[in-house]
Amino acid sequence: MVLNNIENLLKKYEKGETTLKEEQQLKSYFLSNNVAPHLEMYKPMFAYFLVNQQETFTKDVPLKTKNIFNYKWISVAAVAIITLGIYFGQPVNDDVGTIKDPQLAFNEVSKSLEMISKRFNKGVSTVKYLDEVNKGTSTLGYLNEIENATSIIFKN
Amino acid sequence: MTQSEFLNIVMPFKDKVFRLSKRLLISREEAEDATQEVLLKLWKNKKKIQEYKNIEAFSMTMAKNFCFDKLKSKQAQNLKIVHSNYEDNNTSLQKQVELNDSVDWVAKIIEELPEQQRLIIQLRDIEEYDLDEIAKMLDMNNTAVRVNLSRARKAIREKLTNTHNYGIK
Question: For this UniProt entry, which segments traverse the membrane (chain A) (predicted)?
């Protein structure tokens, strides 16, 4: 009776008309130990299906949450840097060594001006040798005499 | 969506995607890569994931298409996928059933089937999907699925009967 039923189911199975439930019945029959000898050849098929059902995927999948870079933060950083720069940069610019007392300031200025003129004179003195050149050119004045003489000659 | 939420959605069917890929690509490594690819694609589109009606069916279709693409590009390169892993890792289970050799035979027989039939056998007899679901996944109509399924089953049975009768094991 059971065998008859199984044979019918097999026929239907081959036509692709069995329901999932009927197929389950077939599977459990062929995985049991009392399969009729003339249906032996189906055994490995159903065994194979069962074995394959249990294969699993073991590889890791690298799921990375992408860090979407937010450009807002750049402006935030820029603002922070600018405010810090203004805050800490100011006092440095303030102190240029201003002297409050006018007398002292005058003394300081005249001192520094004196220093400038001193240096300047020193510089000028080293250029004095240019006078020698002037002297040389003045002694070359006699060349004019020659020129005068030649002009007289060519006139005649 | 957080990682764990995503994993909760994906966990139930990631093995099915893997087995489907393996059925088509045969090599275990290739199948693992394909599965990874499918899952990463899902992860990238995780914002849209709620819009899909049936993520599982969608992923299976995706896996199928991905594998077909892969096979096509392999053919174009004139390369053959080398499959060196007929033996499954589940040998203990096979021994338990004491059908080692003949189970390998079934594997080889199924491997020789056309891709479409292999797919349908995988989806129906191993993953136990409804015919309508399979039709949707493969973008075929119900009758075509049934015809292919019937052909595949007949082919397997015939070859099994032959080997059984010849006593080649």
Answer: 69-89
